[in-house]
Amino acid sequence: MIFRKFFAVFLSFIMIAGGFGSSIAFSASKIVQTTKFNVNYSGIRVGKITFTIEIDGEEYLLKAKGKTDGVARLFSKGKGSFSSSGHFDGASVISASHSVEVTEKGKTAKLDMLFDEGNLKNVNSVPEKKKKSKKYIPVLEEHLQSIIDPASSIVVPTSQNASGGRDVCGRTLNVYDGETRFDVVLSYKSTRPISAKGYKGLAYVCKFKYVPVAGHKKGHKSVELMRKNENMEIWLAPIRGTSVFTPIKIDVDSPVGRFVAFPKRFSALVVE
After folding, report:
1. Whole-prediction pTM value?
2. What are the beta bridge partners of residue 188?
3. Span 18-22, mean pLDDT?
């Protein structure tokens, strides 16, 4: 349970000019971006996550894997992986598929979703989700149109005339995770220097707000804490050779502790 919550939180958070170097048009070659995160909760190491983003023209394929680490392994050993695919439409992401697999205490949970031009086509989970009571806000058909999966929220394309942090951060992501529908509202805060293996430069610091839409329990404490939290940041840096950004740091401060995913590696390779 501990690892499943940790992995779900990362996916949910998880969601260019001048000083950012070669952030320009899409490269004619395939670009493979690798990012490795160490994850701390209230100053304690709890996990590691590595993800790769393959960009081939206007199509993307994202793969990731993670596991508990440090003191968290004393309480719950877990591992997980996810993958997502889709394509770009200007400064927007259009999801095509999303899969998640999480194993903890010998039990494995799986989720597969398919999309048709950003509209949910099919969802399958193992074990099957239990029917929710009337205390939960129902997910309607209209909530499942023009959406993206949680993993695709960390692929942030920009238009060719993007002129700075407000153009990169200023967006609302309509996310469905197979159970709940929520919006992630990003807005520009500042530009900060950051370094990791493979990258030393600037990042746009975006404030993000969690807006529950459907599928959640009415008035649930954790939902309300997230909704009211004004101290959540996601730092976006450019993927070399493209006009696409992705998180290089995530920082969430809350009444129950501080969650920080900080970079160990952030680099891109050109594959001919």
Report:
1. 0.87
2. 206
3. 38
